[in-house]
Sequence to fold (439 residues):
Amino acid sequence: MTVHVLSSGWNRYTFSDLLAEHARFVPSDSKWIKGLLAVPFVLYSQPTGVFETNSVSFTQMSEEAHRRYAEIMRDVEVMLDDHIEHQRDNRSLPSKLKLLVPTIGVFFTRLPLEAAFKYQDRKRFISSRRFVSPSFNDVRLVLNSAQIMAVTTYGTLQLATFDGDVTLYDDGESLVPTSPVIPRMIDLMRKNVKIGIVTAAGYTTADRYYDRLHGLLDAIATSRELTPQQRQNIVIMGGEANYLFEFHAESEHLLRPVPRERWLTAEMAAWSDKSIEALLDVAEAALRDCIKTMALPATLMRKDRAVGIIPTDPSIRIPRESLEETVLVVQKILELSVGGRDFDNKVVPFCAFNGGRDVFVDIGDKSWGVNVCQKWFGGGDDAAPIRGENTLHVGDQFLSAGSNDFKARSVGTTAWIASPAETVELLDELADLMGKKIS
Ligand SMILES: [Mg+2]
Fold:
């Protein structure tokens, strides 16, 4: 019997390791919190209980582990509150959290981590485990629960945006009528929460989106629960931030394209066609080079607002490492040629990302896409857009190269799921908390 976590967990996470790790991994709050939980696991878990009859009782052990984990989560919660204080009054001195995790992002809400941990521990029995320490997934799910609790407790959820592949349906599949996520999305619309499907899929016509989302669109069209007004509570934002469609019951595919001049933000309108073309030309050349140097079984695909590579045959899977390498090469070449990082360059922001089976470079990214939804539902130019703390983006891409869902974190709160089944669980958690708040 190998208690591998005892040897690896204990000495892998020293204080300086946490710092070093975070210099490399931008998006992951989960990693360093996991490191903190590894210590009580090593000290208090009782793996010998499996073969020793006179050891500490199992209940005692799990209660002790639970208490320690909860304390750590509360300590992190307090540290986060202090960070939010610093963020709020724009202090020039960094918070302790900022010193520990230099890449830490903006927080739109506080996070009730202790309560969220207790919730997930009841569900996942984290404290009852003797051989497997609190994992990356455990922490990711605790963070999601904390975020869901926050958006329903400290404010009101007004806008929920969803990624498509892996979030609403399996990679490359579509939202079929039997999908359990559909009634949950309709329930949100019935509660007047606005929905945006913010996907990288960059189709220019309604029929292609209908192919991917027909289960949901048909359900909205035929729902007896939704008022005509509530049926308009959904938009599709394709190509990250490039094609907007609104629900339209009379159209053949239940969607109607919205002309760009009606929704482009002032900043987006300033991206000239010429600069977009020039950026895509550079990206295309870089992608072609990757196909050649790594002999990728891929072909190039150029669209008006994107360029990418797809497998020459749908049955081929390009290795993950090759896809990641391609993203990083293209990203670097683009950054050098347009003189700025992807998300904050002043000419045209772009997003190079690993789509699981392909690599694409899109104009803009999901932060722009979600921001368009915030403005669209916020009531147009003059009215205030829906705010970050009232927005939740649900997606699966937070860690891979380009991680396009992570970009949404700069404009709203986020939940990081790993499968459509997790999205369903998350929406149940959300409905439960929204229900509690009303009563
Ligand atoms: Mg996805």
Q: What stands out?
A: Confidence is low (pLDDT under 50) at residues 1-27. Residues 58-88 form the longest helix (31 residues).
